Automatic annotation (TrEMBL):
Signal peptide: none annotated. PANTHER family: 3'-5' EXONUCLEASE DOMAIN-CONTAINING PROTEIN, EXONUCLEASE MUT-7 HOMOLOG. SMART domains: 35EXOc. It holds the Pfam family Mut7-C. Residues 550-592 are annotated as: Disordered. CDD domains: mut-7_like_exo (cd06146). GO terms for biological process: nucleobase-containing compound metabolic process. This is MUT7 Exonuclease. Residues 336-538 form the 3'-5' exonuclease domain. It comes from the Eukaryota. Residues 553-564 have a biased composition (Basic residues).
Amino acid sequence: VSRQLKEEIRRGFARLEDPLAGLLAMLESSSDWKGKGHSLGYCITTELQLWMKEHPAVPQSGTKLEELQARVLGMLSQCPANLLDPLISIYQLHTVDRNCLLEHVSHLYLQGDYKEAAILSIKLKLQPDQDVEKMCTPLLLQDKANLVEDYVGEYPELQRKLLQTLDTWCDPSFNIRDITRPYQGLSRYKPEKFNHRMLSKLVFRLLERFKVDPALCPNVINQRHLRTLNYLFYKRFVEKTMTEENWADHIQSTAGESRWLQAQLARLLLRHCGARGAARWAQRCQLPPELLPPPLAQELQRLHLQDRVEEVTEADNYEDSKKKDYYQLPIPRENIHFLQTWEETLQCWGKVLQPGQVVGVDMEWKPSFGTVGKPRVALLQLALKDEVFLLDLPRLLQQAEAQGHREKLPHFIQMLYADAAITKLGYGMSGDLSSLAATCSALKDTEKQMQGVVDLLAVDKQKAEGLSPEHGHEERGARQPEKGLSLLVQHVLGKPLDKTEQLSNWERRPLREQQVLYAASDAYCLLEIYERLCKDPESFGLGSDLTESLVGKHSKKPRAKKQLNKQEAPSPSGQECQGPRAEPSRPPAPLSPREFSVVCDNMLQGLGRYLRCLGVDVRLLDNGDDHRKAAEIARQEGRVILTSGLPYQTLCSQVGEGRCFSVNCSDKAKEQALQVLRHFNVQVALGDIFSRCQ
């Protein structure tokens, strides 16, 4: 606003007998102020607010003010957001009788102005006197979750009430239609955004934002744990990529003391292990007999009671007999050191912090399987040429805290990362450093200060299609295709990593022997990869200036990839359904969006709508549809399936090669769409955007 206009506005106020009435008369007679942005009405209103602070003698009380307040209240529902605070301040609406304000907001609500009623309630701080479920339900139906968060933002008691309500809705037996039925005529109603899955995500977001105890929401927590149990059974019995000990650790800790989860565990055991195997596992997990399905309970009665429960020892043919298929640690077992005291750690740092040293760095944390909060590092691995150090980070930090030297360990870690004379090797280092910062706040700036780092994930980006394994391999049965670091190890060193311990409980102490060997291998293989690539980069499709191009570079983008691998552990994402191949395929020929037709699984409706905006021919499964319907549509109409998570394994076997693609369900729709477009080489032109009916 020009200085001249401001001065003219102020002169006008000075000439008015009642500036408050004058402003109100102007706003009531003009529609200019209703627009977005800084209208003339907005400028005049904010100038009056400033002018009144400089002229406190302006009468601002009495019957006349009450009349003005009543008129202003009638206007507020039409106000742009930027005018609310100035008008509330000028006309002292916080002094209006609270019952009058509540009645006015209730009137807005009954008119169907739910958003306006909520915003005004927030501005006037009326929430403690309102029904949180009643106020928030229509907002959620209109996909206004952010407004709901703001509505309860300053009131812990309302946060708990809202979370308890949402958790009730997430009970599998609860019929969502009981909530939506009274709002069938609601404008901007988005039923596809109102389902158990969306509500569950919202609950977890609110739990994390407001730091509320997850125990307040047993239904959501139990459903998340049930998905974890299903995933663990999938990893163990379908993919066959978890050891028995690792799997047993997780199923028992996931079911915990919850009787409902214990009953679900019994059902899964019966389905995957048969009655006899399930009975033995039920004994081992100490599942209450009254929770067991009848066939399992009957089998359990037939088992002889023993002092020591016999363990199920289902042999894993990929463990001992096929160890030759996997990368093996080339150093003796006695050269792997598990460090839990400061004295041991000092000896480690004396060897690591040497100029010219090359160090393989990796970290492990307990898989969260989607629970609230960032993962905390449980193990820090440092690999040198002849030995590997495994640092028990929680124990060492606890000791330092008890001794009043909490900064000691972070100081050494920062020294390592900041020393340009020491080469640090990693894979997706940003993900590790993010978890390190969540574990110890003193390390939050480590990524900004680090020098001399080599993130080998960059190798995958530098002509990765030129990489070729040094040795050919026979097929390894039904084992899952390698990815990430394991794939890089296979390309460069000839054999992949054995990842069966990747999803271990890394907080357990003592670690199992298989965990120790896995952790050491994960860090040590980085040294061998780096040495091999530096000796002969051209044979792997890389430039001769490999060292110069990689040292000091670290990609921030791989963070999600690294964290997902360890923390949330989805099934293969961002990959196409395809058989084994000896050579990487060429990029597909460019397609226009009009030539590209897909069917989106029901967890990817946001992706489907985004692709449709870009002109892609999209069919969406409904929330209640079985995933297999996607395969049926794909075969009948020649569409590509877009899916995520566990359904990928089922669907890709039902369509032709290259006709099923899995995206990361935790990515936003835009990121998923970019991944799909890049993979299938779909070229979007300006004319394609909004070329299809939305």
